[in-house]
Design a protein that fits this description.
Elements lengths: L5 H10 L5 H13 L5 H7 L5 H12 L21 H7 L1 E7 L2 E6 L5 H13 L3 E6 L2 H15 L9 H14 L4 E6 L3 E8 L2 E9 L3 H11 L10 E5 L5 E10 L2 E10 L16 H8 L4 E6 L6 H12 L6 E5 L10 E4 L6 H8 L6 E4 L5 H12 L3 E6 L6 H8 L4 H7 E13 L5 E4 L2 H14 L9 E4 L11 E12 L2 H8 L4 H10 L5 H10 L5 H8 L3
Parallel strand pairs: 2-3, 10-14, 10-15, 11-12, 11-13, 13-14
Antiparallel strand pairs: 1-2, 4-5, 4-9, 5-6, 7-8, 8-9, 15-18, 16-17
Helix pairs in contact: 8-9, 12-13, 13-15, 15-17, 17-18
Length: about 550
Amino acid sequence: MATNQRQPLGIELVRRGIVKQEDIKEALAYQSIHTKEKLGDILYDLKLANPIILLKAMGEILGEKTLFLTDADIKIDVSKYISIDTAREAGAIPFEVENGTIKVCFSDVTEKRHVENIRLLMLNKGLVMDRYMTFKSNINEILENITSVSTEKIDTDASGTSIVDNIIRTGMAKRASDIHIEPLEKAVRVRYRIDGKLFTIAEIDKEKQSQIIGRLKAISNMHQEKQEPQDGRIIMYPDYNIRVSSQRNIHGEKFVLRLLKKDMAVKSIFDLGYPNDENLLRNAFDKRNSITIIAAPTGEGKTTTLYSVIDYLDKPEINITTIEDPVEIRIPGLNQIEIDAKTTFAVSLRTILRQDPDIILVGEIRDNETAEIAMQAGQTGHYVLSTVHTINAIEVVERLRKMGVSNYDISSTLATSISQRLVRKLCPKCKRERQFTEEELAIIKKIEERYNVEFKIEKPVTYDSVGCEYCNNSGFFDRIAVFETLLVTDEIKELISKDASTLEIRNQAYKQGYRPLVVDGIKKVINGLTTLEELNSKLLFY
């Protein structure tokens, strides 16, 4: 909830007679397990106090205006001011506009990054923000109601124009990252990728195919007659930039739409799932004259993590420049450069070095030229962040070698490599607690023995996905990353400079505390964030 001073808040609430001392003890015991939950939210969720009285008292203690939101308080079309996804990420709902002022209710007014992002978003719309606070669950309940009202069913009997618009708007409402419109032999199939998984939403009569294709090409500025692969962009939806790709198959032209939210808030690196370990953070990211590389296969959130690291490092006195293909999230204060047909990462990077940057983000190292210039930048006083496609943090060294980067340049410049995978998070609305099976505990035990770790399981319980309207009956809502981090120590630098094998580097990494992705994943299973099955679908460890 809306305070970082958990214990003083508890003491003050007891002093005022809002709660009893034993209520605070119960809430703090719960908080020791659910460490990210705020005290006020816990008191509300556990029904340990009258919510209205509790919220008012918290507002008085924290010096904040409060409002326990109801549907009747929502006097505007929320989606006209903020996307539902941004509202979820920020824990914020605008609910009334009056005389150039927009009232916004937050679940956590101490989360300065979210509050400032929303303030700037409203300012860009010509509105001054007036902030209120409420409980996290209150925000989520209202958002669920808004979503259920705004979600449309695809009317497959409508015109091609209406069908396409329905497909796109419904995809937005359902949090789809990609929309697949695929011609089959006897129908046109529509699938949404939600939290990394594809779901079939509708099958449309084959006779509508030409209308749908014509409309998609018209609004994405594609050539109507050409049937070879094309790329386009849809800009007619105010909150989204939509990239479009077409590819002919045996039944016609398939289209994939990538939905990119214009006002998407940058998640903190901790919200993504990175360990909140100050020593690790300092060793991993507090660098100069070096390069940090994030490694993962395509579609595993490398760019999102880069943005989060930038957000973690960003300060007014630092000049940050990015080179991206394309720019997916626009961040105030950053110098963001988008690659186009006339330029390359290497050309842009060479130019940037003359712009006095402190930190350089290179969207992807794809070739020797980009790699060499990135290494040069890291050796001349800059901190470089980039990504490569490879399977784990240790393989980054071999990947750079295959690009033609010398062992000397790698050993002298590479400071950190991080690998990640995205796994689906259990839906907070419908997940249910159950006992670990003996087979599951045996799997966890094997991981402990294999990697010389000890998982602290205070009680042998895990959670199952159930499915509800909130998560589209999938049992999962949103995704979280599992991480592994290789800190390139002096010992590893020496191994790299001697052209040591990946196996030799891995053995040294284990000696200094490196642990693979599965270890972080098991911790997230134990903490009730995902399931062993979901983790195994990405890592195949049993």
